[in-house]
Design a protein that fits this description.
Number of strands: 0
Order of helices and strands: HHH
Helix content: over 70%
Largest sheet: none
Distance between the termini: 56 Å
Amino acid sequence: MTARARRLEDRIRELCAEAVAATSSHKARPILAELQSAIRQYTHRLRARAAVLLAPRAECPVDRRKNSRDRRQRYTA
């Protein structure tokens, strides 16, 4: 685990503690907004790491399904 990821995890823990300790919803709102942002960033980093670790080195296969516009053209023609 990188130091950057560790710092983000620590920040998430701090924000959780601050949110629990908040005495009113007025005080909790900005804390929760920052917490939500930190969790999104953490999730993004985890997805990126998982993609690097789990995805094969080859390119992703092309989606062979037709999109909805192609289906509409077929039915209206």
